[in-house]
UniProtKB/TrEMBL annotation:
SUPFAM superfamilies listed in its UniProt record: alpha/beta-Hydrolases
Gene Ontology MF term list: hydrolase activity
Name of this chain's protein: Alpha/beta fold hydrolase
Keyword Disulfide bond: no
Keywords for this protein: Hydrolase
Pfam families: Abhydrolase_1 (PF00561)
Key word Cell inner membrane present: no
Source organism, top-level taxon: Bacteria
Domain AB hydrolase-1: 26-258
InterPro entries (UniProt xref): AB_hydrolase_1, AB_hydrolase_fold, Epox_hydrolase-like
């Protein structure tokens, strides 16, 4: 059963969902945009049943009391530090990491910069940042797919457009999610500061001259849908060039929202990956 709890990290208070026995090995799930930790609500009990302790935070900007003002507060490094601190407080030093969309972008960064902390890494939809960067430079299809990012970098206007007709554009993206999940998303994005904070993930990290991460050594699972509207095949298939540890690539017949559209395949792949790299026995 999933419980909703809160945790204070310095002057920020994060909401998070938790499932499983705290004595078991920790798995941290990172949501993307425009979603919250509830996107993992169906998957977490399945993983907990395998003998893992699962937590999914509403990340910086999405938690009501962890929503500082200012673009500078939403760099990947700051968000990653939040996740590392939450994990350490709740279970200990080492953990498995699973991320989708922006959660995956942050997860790649954490995994590269803190390999001693990450037992296994799973990215849904988002390739290694070097592979994606190369795709943006060389692949016409990816350049076209990523045009929306330039719009998100604008001040104020994106917030105005997104709020039109009570988030009609977002509702189209959430069409596979049940009503109670959509209501959770709306409860967050209807807060003015949270929508701006979510867009600040783009504004703080895109075109800022950030040094790309290097090769990842951690055991990695990457799942990509071949009908993804935001991520093309070029970057997805090139990711293997930047993972030097054990690497599993799964291409599925699906779009960007893989947890909703390809649940069984995602569940099975993550279950096998976590079980393969488990270091502690099931204590439940």
């Amino acid at each position: 059963m999933i419980r909703s709890e809160k945790i204070k990290i310095e002057d920020l208070e994060f909401d998070y969902r938790v499932c499983g026995d705290k004595q078991n090995e920790l798995v941290v799930f990172l949501h993307g945009f425009p979603e919250t930790s509830i996107m993992w609500a169906e998957l977490m009990p399945e993983i907990a049943a395998l003998g893992f302790y699962c937590i999914a935070p509403d990340m910086r900007g999405y938690s009501k009391n962890a929503c500082p003002k200012g673009v500078k507060n939403y760099t990947i490094t700051r968000i990653g530090d939040d996740i590392l601190s939450i994990a350490e407080r709740l279970r200990g030093d080492k953990f498995h990491l699973v991320g989708h969309d922006w959660g995956a972008a942050i997860g790649w960064d954490i995994t590269y910069r803190h390999p001693e902390r990450i037992l296994s890494w799973t990215s849904l939809s988002i390739p290694h940042s070097r592979a994606f960067g190369k795709a943006l430079k060389e692949d016409k299809a990816q350049k076209k797919m990523s045009r929306y990012i330039g719009f998100f970098l604008l001040p104020v206007l994106p917030e105005i457009i997104i709020r039109r007709n009570d988030f009609k554009a977002f509702r189209k993206l959430w069409k596979r999610s049940p009503p109670e999940v959509q209501e959770n998303y709306l409860s967050v994005f209807r807060r003015k500061q949270s929508l701006t904070a979510a867009l600040n993930y783009y504004r703080a990290n895109i075109r800022k001259g950030r040094k790309p991460i290097g090769d990842v050594q951690t055991p990695t699972l990457f799942v990509w849908g071949n009908r993804d509207f935001a991520i093309g095949a070029f970057g997805a298939r090139m990711t293997e060039n930047y993972v030097k540890g054990d690497y599993t690539y799964l291409e599925v017949d699906g779009g960007h929202w893989l947890v909703q559209s390809n649940f069984s395949e995602v569940k099975d792949a993550i279950s096998q990956h976590l079980s393969k790299y488990r270091t502690l026995p099931d204590r439940s």
